[in-house]
Amino acid sequence: MISNPRIIRGRSGSDFHLGANNTPTSRVYNALNRLLTNDEVFAHNDLIIFAGDVTERLLSQPSQEAKITRNWIDETVLLTQKHDTTLLVLEGTPLHDWKQSEYFVESNQKFGNKADIHYVKDVRVEFIEKLGIWVLYVPDEAHDTCQMTEIAVREALHAAGIEKVDITVLHGQFRHQYPAHLQDAGLDFHSSDFYLNITRHFIFAGHVHTHSIYKRIVAHGSIERLHHSYEDPKGCVGFELNLDDPSKSKVWFIENHDAMIYKTFHVKGDNLQYEADRIRTYAVQQPIGSFLRVKAKADHPILAMVREFKKEMPMFHWTADKEKEKRKKEAEIVPTKIKRARISIRPDNIADLLKDKLDELPNHEKEAILSVLERCK
């Protein structure tokens, strides 16, 4: 597109989780096509960003979820090619993406490598000449800790000979995205100040499923609702980069108004008939296929009535949930899974993880093991 080379227009999203356990993959596919991957969006934007967690899990190839995902990737590649748009795809959480976004590269090869697609799975700084912008990519768990990832970012900037990038595409969590009682609970956070200092325009962040904008850190939130306790608005973001004056760059939320309904009925009153009627009245107003949860104290009779609701209204997904202790209940308001610093064992890092043990072996044994590990990559 690029009608004005000094203004870059785009859309960015993350956490699609194709193959999710509850929300059907076909529904996520439809949401993507409404908000991100259609002719109108690609025709009117220069840059499209997928900031990680394209998939929920390692997809079994004969499965319907895998077929829908591969079909969507093919369609997206053809859109990128048709409209001469630039597509950036970042690797997300290893246990979600499993490097399955490499399918974008394979699909592009299948169609003659005519699309401008950048799939990145490591910390990297790149200049996109067509757009005239520098981009920093930071995948999730790129290194064992956020501090080590920051060191890798500094090295990448130094190698590129620059101090700042125009945008950062990151999959991870920041302290401001969590409630106060969890901000000092030993979780591993990226430094908001660091990334703000090295980014001229916006940091587009995936991982936390709640949309927020903190200064210039833009968390998309997930494109769809995937579980209970995710009842806030879902969608993606649109943006406009003013390369001459970053203070005039803009970003805005684009809501998925047709997101799956996950509704929790909190029952505290003792009037069983009143509470049951309240639940019935609200439930019948929801779209077919909605996920409805009744939550109450363990001894409340309303929980036993969930069996009756299932018989009366089988068009919904019903669950009963016992209220937890207050201390545990507070932890539930975190908009994503609690993530402590952890180490994923993958083909590309297992040699480094085993280094100390390998160094204890005779050289010929060490070389034999390293040779096997190399063939497994």
Give the strand order of the largest sheet, numbering strands 1, 2, ... along the chain. 4-3-2-1-11-12
Number of helices: 13
Helix-strand category: alpha/beta
Choose one word for the global shape.
globular
Kindly state the number of beta strands.
15
Summarize the helix and strand pattern as letters: EHHEHEHHEEEHEHEEEEEEHEHEHHHH
Low-confidence regions: 328-342
CATH superfamily of the largest domain: Metallo-dependent phosphatases
User: What do the pLDDT scores average to?
Assistant: 91
- CATH architecture of the largest domain, please? 4-Layer Sandwich
- The CATH C-level class name of the largest domain: Alpha Beta
Number of domain units = 3
Q: Approximately how much helix is present in the residues? A: 25-40%
CATH topology of the largest domain: Purple Acid Phosphatase, chain A, domain 2
Biggest sheet statistics: 6 strands, mixed
Strand content: 15-25%
Straight-line distance between termini = 38 Å
